[in-house]
Each structure stands twice: as C-alpha cells, then as structure tokens.
Amino acid sequence: MNESVFYNVDALSEAIEGQKCISFKYFEYDRDKNQVFRNNGQRYHVSPEFLVWDDENYYLVSIRTDDGQLRHFRVDKMSDIVISDLPALPASVDQARYTGWLFGMYGGEVRSVRLKFANELAGVAIDRFGKNVTFAPFGDDHFTANVEVIVSPQFMAWLVGLGGKVQILSPDDVRERFKNHLRGCLEIYE
C-alpha cells in the first residue's frame, strides 16, 4: 500500500465525521502502468457514506451529488481529495446490508435473486448471506434462498467457484446474464 492511501483515508475519515461532501480525481492504470484519469480528468463530487476494507484495499462508499447514484471508489486510486463546505447528504446506506450484497467490491445493480443450493452448501450460504436468510427445502438434496446481491462478474465467479452446486432460479434476466457470462468464458478457450 502506498503512503498516499493513509493520507486519503485520513481526509475521508475527516469528511465523514464532519459530514461534509468531497471532490477528487479518480484514475486507472493503462498497460504501460501510467495513471489515466477517468471522467476526462474532471473531479467527482460525492457525499461520503463510509469506508470499507475488502481484499486488501480500502473503498469509499458514497452518493454522487449530481445524480444521487450510490458508488464506491478504491481509495488508492483517488487523487487530490478536497473537503468542501457543502454538508453531506443524509445517510442513506445501511453499511451491513450493502457490504453483504457485494462480491469483491464490484459495482452493479442490487437484485433479489432466488438461488438453489446443494444441502452441503448450507454453511457457505450462511457465511455469505447471514443466518437470517430463509432456507426452503427443494427436494431431498437441495434448498432455495431468496437473497439480495449486486449482480456483477464477481458474483458470477463466486457461483462458478461452487462447482455447479448453486443454480440461479430467478429472475430470468439474471439467469440469462449468467449463461452469457459462461459462454463468454468458454469462447476464449475454443
């Protein structure tokens, strides 16, 4: 982790605690390992909600002030953070629920999904979705659970990693998206 992350976390914590909006620039790396600013180098303006540590990275969960969209940003890719005088928007995100929906901090749409699990994956389902998730028997060898997730490539990779012992039952568009994801993975090996 580079030293700038500590300064960024400090500034973000100050803004969250002081309930102030912030602006910053956000970058990615190109294949030559050069920083390339997103948004044509324009500043992002957000109301910070909270910080999350996931897979050895800090993320800022925030609300964009221009369109009210929930977004998260990797803290180490934020540059030139400025705390504004504008008050933060009222807190609108349940931190525990939000982080429970995520798979590897990939963004996407929050959806209610019905999954069918092999019985031996009950512990996996509880670890991922919590003890409050309701299991419904589905024959002798399976159960179903309705869960809220952020449908993302990482969610699909999680499903693949369970070796076909979990199936998306509904909604149909999420099933189709998963099938297309699998087809895309297979195509590069043919």
Oligomer: single chain
Number of strands: 10
What proportion of the residues is helical, as a percent range? 25-40%
Main structural class: alpha+beta
* Overall CATH architecture of the largest domain: 2-Layer Sandwich
Radius of gyration: 19 Å
Q: At the first level of CATH, what is the class of the largest domain?
A: Alpha Beta
Low-confidence stretches: none
- What is the count of distinct domains? 2
Task: Give the number of helices.
Answer: 5
Strand content range? 35-45%
Mean of pLDDT: 87
Largest sheet: 6 strands, antiparallel
CATH topology of the largest domain: Alpha-Beta Plaits
Shape: globular
Distance between the termini: 38 Å
The secondary-structure element order is HEEEEEEHEHEEHEH
Outline of this structure?
29% of the residues lie in helices and 39% in strands. By secondary structure, the protein is of the alpha+beta class. It folds into two domains: 85 residues, SH3 type barrels (Roll); 93 residues, 2-Layer Sandwich (Alpha-Beta Plaits), CATH 3.30.70.240.
